[in-house]
Design brief:
169 residues; mainly alpha; 6 helices; 2 strands; globular; disordered N terminus
Length: 169
């Protein structure tokens, strides 16, 4: 189940804190909005009436991440030969973190908006998905009375939740 959170206007925004639940719960309507916006890009199935968080996360991964990380999330996507660094094996994140999936760190890395300066190894190779999702949400939600940030956070949360299901135990 996806639960969305929005930060207080007076607080500083941290995607990881927001996704971890530090902030205010968005109305249930926000989940319906995010699901509706995201479902518009999912393949249509006449018998399917609802889209689950796992399906949204898997769709996000297959659409945006598998090109580099591979459909199995082990780092062997079709873009691998063209990248300066081998993409991370996303199935080993929990194992490398003492058996605990680092949900906050993964959400922060996917979002990418909190990292302004390049790291010690140069520029960030992975796209800043928070910016990409924000642009898409601004376009898709134009004229709707809901913050586009709800869509951004919902997509990142769905993707993070999906990645947690891929972890090697």
């Amino acid at each position: 189940m996806i639960t969305l959170f929005i930060a207080s206007p007076a607080s500083s925004f941290s995607p990881a804190r927001a996704l971890a639940g530090v902030g205010y719960r968005a109305p249930v309507l926000a989940l319906a909005i995010v699901s509706a916006v995201l479902a518009t890009s999912l393949p249509c199935n006449a018998s399917a009436q609802t889209v689950t968080g796992a399906e949204l996360g898997r769709h996000e991964f297959e659409t945006n991440c598998a090109i580099c990380h591979g459909i199995d999330a082990r780092g062997g996507g079709p873009m691998r030969p063209f990248l300066a660094r081998v993409p991370t094996d996303l199935t080993s994140l929990a194992r490398r973190n003492g058996g605990v999936f680092p949900k906050d760190a993964v959400a922060e890395l996917i979002d990418g908006r909190a990292t302004v300066e390049p790291g010690p190894h140069g520029t960030r190779e992975m796209p800043i998905w928070g910016n990409v999702y924000r642009e898409q949400a601004n376009h898709q939600m134009r004229g709707m009375p809901f913050p586009s940030e709800w869509s951004v956070r919902g997509r990142i949360l769905a993707l993070t939740d999906y990645l947690s299901t891929l972890q090697q135990r």
